[in-house]
Amino acid sequence: MILERPAGVLIKTTCVDYPGRVAGSFFLKGCNLTCPYCYNINLVKDSGSDEELNTVSELFAHLEKRQGILSGLVISGGEPLLSPYTPLIIKKAKELGYKVKIDTNGTLPEKLEELMNDDILAPDFVAMDIKTSPYKYSSLMCNFGNEEFFTEKLAKSAALISKMESSQREWRTVLVPGLVEKADIKNMAAILPEDASWQFAQFRNGNCLNPAYNDLTPYTDSEITSLIEYAKSFISGAELR
Q1: CA distance linking residue 199 with residue 8, whole number of Å
Q2: Dihedral (C-alpha) 174, 56, 92, 102: value to the nearest 10 degrees?
Q3: Which of 12, 19, 183, 204 is the most buried (most CB within 10 A)?
Q4: What are phi and psi of 171, to 5 degrees?
Q5: What is the CA 193 to chain-centroid distance, rounded?
Q6: Are 96 and 71 in contact (CB under 8 A)?
Q7: Are β-strands 238-240 and 198-202 bridged in parallel, bridged antiparallel, or unpaired?
């Protein structure tokens, strides 16, 4: 039965992944990108032991047990819009009274639009990763597409998400030296709405998909401050999380 197959990693309780809610998180395996700094290596490469993964049935049992304690569910990855489990999980979570947040990399706007236009499956919150300038995606984070392809996909996803209430959406960027520089900040900001909540995070070197990034020195506090202040000149809602 499909619900009994190893599908992802369950985080039973989180206070940081769903803004304003105590939630559970389910990180589904499978992704169409290979971001060099990614730390969910087993999920992206699908190379880990199935014993380390949870089934969707286990997730459902947890949601049933925690009704009235948790109020949200985060479906992340990997890239959850690739997974056949995502619609099943959304439907079940909503039936149990949970608000559902989707984390996506923004490269699959058609799949995102399908969910958003479905009265039953529409997510209550969407967080989109915007990783760097569109022209860097094909060379640094996957082996397909080009600048025009990624500009179109990312812009379309951002436009879809922009239709949601501002309290129901955010964009996220990890400040990876070499991937996110001043010019990249400007290029990324061009895709986002002016009222975006743009959440930045410090890069952590260690357990990266590309081992070379384990030796990469993170930005200093002053460099981070400078980059975020520059981002604020385009998007006032830019901040370090």
Answers
A1: 25
A2: 10
A3: 19
A4: -120, 150
A5: 18
A6: no
A7: parallel
pLDDT, one tens digit per residue, over 67-76 is 999 999 999 9
Give the sign of the dihedral formed by CA 164, CA 165, CA 166, CA 170.
negative
Query: Closest by alpha carbon to 77, among 148, 9, 139?
Result: 9
Distance from CA of residue 56 to its chain's centroid? 19
Cβ distance 55 to 5 under 8 Å?
yes
Amino acid letter at 55?
Answer: T
Q: What would the two tokens of residue 47 be?
A: 């190379």
Three-state secondary structure along the chain? CHHHCEEEEEEEEECCCCCCCCEEEEEECCCCCCCCCCCCHHHHHCCCCHHHCEEHHHHHHHHHHCECCECEEEEECCCHHHCCHHHHHHHHHHHCCCEEEEEECCCCHHHHHHHHCCCCCCCCEEEEECCCCHHHHHHHCCCCCCHHHHHHHHHHHHHHHHCCCHHHEEEEEEECCCCCCHHHHHHHHCCCCCCCCEEEEECCCCCCCCHHHHHCCCCCHHHHHHHHHHHHCCCCCEEEC
Preceding amide of 97 cis, omega within 30: no
pLDDT tens column, 1-55: 688 999 999 999 999 999 999 999 999 999 999 999 999 988 887 665 677 899 9
